[in-house]
Design brief:
The complex is a heterodimer.
Chain A: H1 26-55, H2 80-104, H3 108-138, E1 144-146, E2 152-156, E3 159-164, E4 170-171, H4 173-181, E5 185-187, H5 202-233, H6 236-240, H7 244-269
Antiparallel strand pairs in A: 1-2, 1-5, 2-3, 3-4
Chain B: H1 2-14, H2 21-41, H3 48-70, H4 78-85, H5 89-107
The chains are: A alpha+beta, B mainly alpha.
């Protein structure tokens, strides 16, 4: 958007001036630049997680022994719940892209419908995360024991009286009772100083920070979606003859989904 | 000013044809299938190293579909794609030095 006339361009090159090499509006480009910087923040967090996991590789908890709960199911269902959360978030990403698509066709009613579904999906994801945080903090019934010799033994609600160690070994019966009786400490659940999942506070610290930071992004996204829905309903975009607002908000929402794909892999799968 | 505005709009609408409703759902099914596949193979007895490589590759596949189709980057101008993607070379470098450093610290005897 230059102030002077664009009648004669002195250069035919796309970088010669008077044309946009990116062929997008400023608003979208700014959103992209913000998302790249935000991607760097999340990358740094996940890479820090990776570095510490390699540092404490022999005591780091195995994710599929930590996230084993599923609502209304008694027993071990590792990864099922986060798989469901991933599905919810991908689904809400699809409804968002359908809202953008409807915006291109200037179908106000359809944009509203898809935005409402996206918001519902966002709230479902936030609710799932709250449920997961509750179980992570609350932990199991008996928790873990720091034994007199410094070893770290976990109990299992489904196998009472058994102590399990990170290297896969088990102790049962009278021997386990003896070890528990002489143990130094019993840890139930998780907080920022200790957790029952492994003999390092870092695991819970990273869990709270990374999933919390992502959850806060989802929360912000839901709020921004609600504001967008209000603007669309008020006829703001109709009057402007432009649904680019939905597109920009959509970019942010897909980014949140993208980050979850990485969190899912590096926090829960590997 | 307004002429310019309309022009930029014409450009914007020019490459919207790249994504339609049918394609959106196709991408959804791809993402869903990859996620289910990832969860499924995590329970098999495949060695940890093979699983790690598989998960990383599949995550990049999912990222490609989300960024390329949902975020529309595949249909943007080439200079835009390069400007946004090239900085991530720094992330690749950071992964290398951070994991190397973390492993070295783990092997250090204090």
């Amino acid at each position: 958007m230059s102030n002077h006339s664009t009648a004669a361009s002195p250069s035919t090159s796309i970088w010669g001036g008077d044309v946009s090499p990116f062929k997008v509006s400023w608003g979208k480009l700014y959103m992209w630049i913000f998302l790249v910087s935000d991607a760097f923040t999340f990358s740094s967090l996940l890479i820090a997680y990776g570095a510490m996991r390699h540092r404490f590789t022999d005591i780091w908890p195995l994710p599929n022994e930590v996230f084993t709960h599923f609502p209304f199911v008694h027993g071990h269902m590792p990864l099922a719940y986060v798989g469901l959360m991933t599905f919810i978030l991908i689904m809400s990403s699809v409804t968002m892209v359908l809202a953008v698509d409807a915006g291109h066709k200037f179908q106000k009613k359809a944009v509203e419908k898809w935005l409402v579904l996206t918001i519902i999906g966002g709230f479902m994801f936030l609710g799932s995360q709250a449920w997961e945080w509750y179980h992570f903090i609350h932990g199991s019934e008996k928790g873990a024991y720091v034994l007199a010799d410094g070893r770290f033994g976990r109990t299992d609600d489904l196998e009472p009286g058994v102590l399990k160690f990170r290297d896969g070994s088990k102790v049962e019966g009278a021997e386990a009772t003896e070890l528990i009786a002489t143990s130094k400490k019993n840890i139930i659940g998780a907080n920022l100083e200790e957790n029952e999942y492994g003999n390092t506070p870092l695991f819970a610290n990273f869990f709270f920070f990374i999933t919390g930071f992502h959850g806060f992004h989802v929360f912000s996204g839901v709020m921004i979606n609600i504001i967008t829905l209000a603007l669309v309903s008020s006829g703001f975009n109709e009057r402007k003859k432009d649904y680019e607002l939905v597109e920009k908000v959509g970019l942010y929402w897909h980014f949140v989904d993208l980050v979850w794909v990485f969190v899912f892999t590096f926090f829960y799968l590997v | 000013m307004s002429a310019n505005h309309e022009q930029s709009h014409a450009v914007d609408h020019g490459h919207e044809g790249g994504l339609n409703t049918k394609m959106i759902w196709k991408v959804f099914w791809i993402l869903l299938a990859v996620t289910i596949f990832e969860v499924a193979i995590s329970f098999t007895g495949i060695s940890k190293d093979v699983l790690l490589v598989t998960f990383v590759v599949l995550t990049i596949v999912k990222a490609y579909f989300i960024v390329g189709y949902f975020m529309h980057l595949k249909f943007e101008a080439v200079p835009m794609k390069w400007s946004l993607l090239l900085p991530f070379i720094l992330i690749v470098y950071l992964i290398f030095i951070a994991i190397y450093e973390g492993t070295a610290l783990g092997l250090t005897i204090y």
